[in-house]
Structure formats: C-alpha cells, structure tokens
Please model this.
Amino acid sequence: MNDINRRISETMNVSPASVNIVTKAENALGDVFAYIESVEQICTARVLRAFTDEGVALRHFTPTTGYGYDDTGRDTLDRVFAHALQSEDAIVRPQLTSGTHAIYVALAGLTEPGDSILSASGKPYDTLENVLGISGDCPNSLKRNGVSFSYASLDGNGKIDVEAVIQKALQIKPKLLYIQRSRGYAWRDSLLPARDMKPIFTRIRRELPSTLIVVDNCYGEFTGIDEPTVFGADVIIGSLIKNPGGGLAPTGGYMAGKHQAIEQISQRLTVPGMGREVGSYAGSYRPFYQGLFTAPHITAQALKSAALFARVFEELGYETMPAADAIRSDIVQAIRFHSADELISFCKSIQAASPVDSQASPEPWDMPGYTSQVIMAAGAFVQGASIELSADAPIREPYTVYVQGALSYFHGKLAAIKVIDALKRD
Ligand SMILES: *Cc1c(COP(=O)(O)O)cnc(C)c1O
Model:
C-alpha cells in the first residue's frame, strides 16, 4: 500500500482494502479520463472566448432593483450563455426556479391552443407530467391550455426510433418536437447530439420545416464537444443548479437557441409586450458568470466521478448504465444492486461523505407523485443541486440507484471508497 492510500485509509477511517478496490478501478480509467479532459479543454476554450468576446467586466456583476431596465449584467449574461452554448440567443434568469420551470415557460411560450407537442424520446422526466397534463389536472397545465402531448417510445436499444417518430409527426404535424437528452431516472442511455439527435433533426427539418425542435438539455451541458443546437435544435433548456451553473449559481435556469424562438419565449417569461426588457436581480450576478466559467471543469469532475463509480461496481459484478468506458451525454450513473439494503447503504454512505449535512441519515420516504418509496442522498451547498454529489433511488426492484455530480473528482473518489467500505462491512 502506497503512502497516499495509507493516509486516505487512516483519515477516512476505512480499510486499506476499500481504498485499494477504488484505486484499482481508477487506474483502469486513463483513456476515459483523457477523453473527458479533451472535451473539458474544448468547452473551456469556447466559454473563455464567450467571456472575452462579450467583454465581461466587473460592472456586469452589479445587482439591480425594480424593473431592471437596461440591466447590463443580465443582458450580457444572456449573450455569454448563448455563445457558450453555441446558440444565437439565450435567456438566463435567477427567477427561473428550476429546470422544470424553464421547460414549462419555453413550451408554453412556443405553443398556442390547438398546438401539439410530440416527444421523440418517450415519456418525459417525471416532473413534466403535471406540466404537460399527462397526470394530475393542474390549472395552467399545457393540456388545460389546449396543447396536446404525445410521444414515440425509444426503440429496444434506447435510441430514437426515427421512422416511428416521422410517421407520427406526419400524422399530427406537431408544433414542437421534444427530445430529452439525459437518461433522467430511466434505465436507458443518454442521447448524444451528433450520433443520436442529428438524424431525427435532419429528417424533421426536411419533412416538417415549420416544426420547432426543443431539447431538454438538463445534465447534458458540456459533457460533449457540441450542444444539440449545432445539429439543428431550435431551443435547448436547462437548470443552473446542474452543469452550466458550475456549482456556484445559487438557483436559476436558461433557454438558448434561435433568436426568434427565444424572443417568443421571452413574451411568456414576463409579460407580453415587455419580454426580456424587465427583470432585476438584487443579488450579484457574479456567481452566474463564475459558475458558467467553471462549468466545463466541474462537469468533467462529475463525469470522471460517474465513470469511477461505474468501474468500481463493474469490477464487483454489478450491472451499470452506462458502462465505465462509455461516451457520455449526461452526468448520471445508474447502478443496479442486489437488494434494498445495499441501495440504502449506498445512499447513506454518499450522505455521510458529503461536506454539508453529513450527520443526516437519509431514509426511504413516500415522495409525492411516486408509486414506491424513494431514498435520496444530497449533502449539497445549494439545496437540491445535483451537480454536487448526490444519489436518488426508488425502493423497488431492480434496485437501481442514480448517482451524479461531484464538485471535485477526488470527492467522488472518497465517497466511492466510503460506499465500498460500508457495503463490505454490512
Ligand atoms: C433535472 C431535470 C429536469 C428538471 O428538473 P428540476 O429539478 O426541475 O430542475 C428535467 N429533465 C431532466 C432530464 C432532468 O435531469
């Protein structure tokens, strides 16, 4: 046992064998980490270029009040984000409370009564069911406002079934084609913009030129070299307490894409006729800028951590999605355990290895809207931030945990060591 491992084992109060298991997995990931870092470099270059081209200066961090007319910090942040996300335009706002809120505002802003939305990636993320009106009957759901929703399931390999989507699209002529990039909390792969999205984008453009392409980009930003906008997405949407906030943005969401579509969404964001001209922020914009600047690096830390979790559990004989050496399009790692006890032990160890609320012990609970109990580990500086190390799992077969985030790779590694140590002890 080398000196580093001995010191880690002593400091963390874990067995040397646990450290060795994780270190051995880490040693097998040289090529995987090199690829992740190459993406990080390219994205960092693009983000830096966005800052210098837009002339970001200290005055852009200044808080504003009231209506927020001529808020140069807000307007410049929009342009920097647009550039960083390879888009003509963007809206970035602390007032967007979550990714779900940003998606709702975008979908509502782009549709009118009588329009329809077709998802090419199956059922959308859980929190969108009420938004779309698939479940529940909330006032102002898209369904109640006259916008219908349907979906084409992913094929047997978890990829977009291009022919099925096109067939459906030609029938219903949707106003929006919707794609979810991340696996979310489903046992499927994330969709790569160049490989998995471009073919359907190209077909839709040819067959239905007026259909707008909208991508739920949550968890996907900066995981690859190019964002979906490069391949024809009209609008991409995400949360600032995930990848593009770099762990520093305290809240918020964004929409980025074609200028005309973003302008239209801005009329739903605030008030028709005022759009993006209003909206002040009495806190500093600095964490949003700084967070975007560090986002490619933080995303790379999360990706390395995810690959390490995959490799550790693959070596122990567990099923993982994706595999440790997969090219990833999101930061989520799914692992299948043999029992509820293992799943619970995993989440408790993640919590115990968190910088905040390490004393808390997560327990399975009946979360509203879920059919089985759910356990969550989240010891984050920003409440619910899943770019920070976190794990979620419904307590039901096949006992799958979804783990994501890590502000530093070594935090992810130390947490993996703690997880292994506890699993071996139980
Ligand atoms: C996180 C996420 C959302 C939005 O969730 P919020 O918790 O509202 O930010 C939507 N889709 C996917 C795939 C996500 O990962």
User: Anything to note?
Assistant: The mean pLDDT is 97.
